[in-house]
Amino acid sequence: MKLLKYALVTLFSLGLMSCGSSGGGDDTDKVAPGITITAPTADQTIAPGETVSASFTATDNEALKSYIVSVDFFQAVGMTVKTTPVEFTFDKSGTLSGTSQVVTFNMDLPADAKEGKYKMLVKVTDASTEANEKTEERTFIIQK
User: Which residues constitute the signal peptide according to the record (predicted)?
Assistant: First the structure.
């Protein structure tokens, strides 16, 4: 009878261990998403008052979750103007789905935008429990 109990306990334990994930390791997604910025091009010059077309592709091996885009003044270039220019800033965020998604949007520059180099940061987060993130940057120039 003791041998039967021992055999049943052993079989039950083996059954529980085989119910776990295959491979015996942690299956959590540890791979950060990818970002490819396609517009604006690097150091593209745009005049104040124009519309900037922006675009990037986000990819992940499992699933995408969200993105944040921000643009801030980075460095003065060009000539000094007599009016008080406005430093252009831009913020946008949204949700992503699937394993690959193209995001396209426009940024309207004010007519009195401060001339100089601006940095656009794109941050993408995937849907894993690890909350993997990747940030890419692109600079463009506002100049008459």
Answer: 1-23
Q: How many domains does the chain have?
A: 1
End-to-end CA distance of the chain: 93
Residue 6 lies in a domain: no
Specify whether the CB–CB gap between 96 and 66 falls below 8 A.
Answer: yes
Question: Is residue 128 classed as helix, strand or coil in its secondary structure?
Answer: coil
User: What is the tens place of the pLDDT at every residue in 63-106?
Assistant: 999 999 999 998 877 655 555 678 899 999 999 999 999 999 99
CA distances to 119, 126, 137 from 48, rounded to whole Å, are 16, 35, 21
73: domain range? 37-142
Whether residue 29 lies inside any domain: the answer is no
Helices (H) and strands (E) in the chain, counts: 1, 8
